């Protein structure tokens, strides 16, 4: 059994999480220790004890550890990518790409240890100097989702450690292997005992303890419903919190769009990574003049995609992560057609050589923006088409959503692209690009129901993982 990492020691548990390959349910990746409440409390206590000494380490010490971790992740990209694809289901090329991103994130934040920022100002009062500096929060709880099992933990853990915080990390129970591998790398890279703790287990036990322990900060990525619970718990305890809670992202296609480019952007954004991305373009908002040609081209392109085993190099789309997610995806297809949508392609469970959670990518046409398929996040290979008259209606529909993570447009008009970029009610905007696919050195986050709190990634990560101190010094 793969153990939890608590206070620098690998600790077993009475119960295990059985990790199965969604491409082949007979393939058991391993059994991973499921932490109980007491072990979670032990991890928190270890982090609290270790936090002051870690905060006092030199930037060079933190750089060396994070850089070593990043180097090992990159050196093992094929091995770790294969492990990731086995447990989460994204195809091998995507799994390896995610591992490379995680390695680059650790390298970037290793550099951030040395790229320190502060201010020295004159007071408005004579003879007084003002120093503005940043200090670590203290102990940060990190709760990560299953859809990016090494990249999302990396973009939370790396800045937390870089800015001098101790960490208690709870990964999603369905994907413990990538998180365990990351914990093992950090442990061997030299993170001191108690500074980084891994507690695998259920939200009912591990998550509940983290939310009610009065930690200095909680960084959460997951569903809106769970995010609201995180917020309520943190408000009650006074913990600083950061939430990323998904999206219902539009990709607008205007009449003047390059049709091939628009189709590829839609295919990539809606269906790659099995559509299990918070940045997926699940609403395709298409103007009337190009609508029919776009739908026809989409169906033709979908017919060329192979759904299959994640490790089969001929597969374009892997399986859905588990049985519950598969059923949710199929249910939403049924809901959409019951409300009047037309299933132009896919939307069925597929049988493969190995028993797994396979589904054909679904394209639903004839929808309007008030249908459930266009209001609620499906989180699978399902996209709907909304036909509109012109740019202004497309923009209105794009913004008419409780979410606001990312918004995209395909057009050859610089004027309309600029208007869209300025008027889109989203944290990120893509022009002639898929809505999914972001860089690790720039801020990530949205508006409205998608996000709460400071942005993640890049130098903006300091806004969450540090607190500002203003000191007045008399000369």
Automatic annotation (TrEMBL):
Active-site residues annotated for this sequence: 244
InterPro entries: Ald_DH/histidinol_DH (IPR016161), Ald_DH_C (IPR016163), Ald_DH_CS_CYS (IPR016160), Ald_DH_CS_GLU (IPR029510), Ald_DH_N (IPR016162), Aldehyde_DH_dom (IPR015590)
Entry GO MF terms: oxidoreductase activity, acting on the aldehyde or oxo group of donors, NAD or NADP as acceptor
Keyword hit for Transferase: no
TM annotation in the entry: none
Domain Aldehyde dehydrogenase stretches: 10-470
Lineage: superkingdom: Bacteria
Entry annotated with the keyword Oxidoreductase: yes
Keywords: Oxidoreductase
Family to which the UniProt record says this protein belongs: Belongs to the aldehyde dehydrogenase family.
Name this polypeptide is given: Aldehyde dehydrogenase family protein
Organism for this UniProt entry: Leeia aquatica
Taxonomic lineage: Bacteria, Pseudomonadati, Pseudomonadota, Betaproteobacteria, Neisseriales
